[in-house]
Amino acid sequence: MTQPDLDTLLAQVRSCCECMPHLPLGPRPILQMSKTATLLVASQAPGTRAHNSGKPFDDASGEQLRHWMGIADDIFYDPRRVAILPMGLCYPGRAASGGDAPPRAECAKLWRWPLLRELSSLRLTLLVGTFAQEHALGPGRMTDRVRQFDRYLPSHFPLPHPSWRSRGWMVKNPWFEREVLPALRGCVREALGAACGGA
Ligand code: SF4
User: Fold this and answer.
1) Per-residue 3-state assignment (H helix, E strand, C coil) for 109-160
2) Domain limits of the chain?
3) Which one of 114, 123, 150, 198 counts the least CB within 10 Å of its CB?
4) CA–CA separation, 141 vs 90, rounded Å?
């Protein structure tokens, strides 16, 4: 099948209701991208605040992620520079065990590859959380991957999900702030600067 142009593809994605019966708040795909983006945030699924505002990472997790990356809101939310593509594009509801449910598996099967094909300027993909890491790299332990982040460079950088749970994880793994975050900020600056003449 021929790939539609990006505007057509995004219109198709934004009108998708493939897994509507499973979405407690209904379909509302949340993503950000353009062909010129050089940095991709490959994330998990929107939360309720992002669902309500229509803006990805519009919550405490987003503040944490931007702090980790060392970039301001105006850069993070500039689709010409940064693409944000969750594994599941709509809020998936709550899991029985607490926390948000996993991203809907239908979503990546339908939309991920057509959307990724449009990101032809990418220099770096941040794999935020286990779902994005397993999709790109196969099965593996998140903590091991983050600690060995330089194995995946220059194309990928694995990160934990920046939810409130990551605070306890960071206390247990102090090397993350000491060694990984400075490297992450350098890689982000480099990926953005290549397209934008310096971040
Ligand atoms: S989660 Fe993905 S597949 Fe399901 S309705 Fe939203 S856009 Fe469509």
Assistant:
1) HHHHHHHHHCCCCCCEEEEECHHHHHHHHCCCCHHHHHHCHHHCCCCEEEEC
2) 6-193
3) 198
4) 25
Please state which architecture CATH assigns to domain 6-193: 3-Layer(aba) Sandwich (3.40)
Q: Which atom of ligand 1 sits closest to the CA of residue 45?
A: 1
The β-bridge partners of 82 are 39
Atom 3, ligand 1: residue with shortest CA distance: 107
For residue 199, pLDDT over 60 is answered with no
Cα torsion through 54, 161, 140, 149, rounded to 10: 110
Query: Tell me, what's the pLDDT at 1?
Result: 62
CB distance 106 to ligand 1 below 6 Å: yes
Structure tokens at 178: 């000491």
What does DSSP assign to residue 4?
A: P
Within 10 Å of residue 83's Cβ, how many Cβ atoms? 25
Q: What is the dihedral of CA 162, 164, 165, 169, to 10 degrees?
A: 70
| Alpha carbon of 28 to ligand 1 centroid (Å) | 8
Q: How far is CA 126 from the centre of its chain?
A: 7
Cβ-proximal residues to 6 (8 Å cutoff; 6+ apart), any chain = 33, 34, 35, 118
Q: Which amino acid is at 154?
A: P
What pLDDT is attached to residue 99?
Answer: 82
Give the model confidence (pLDDT) of 163-198 as tens digits.
878 889 999 999 999 999 999 999 999 999 954 333
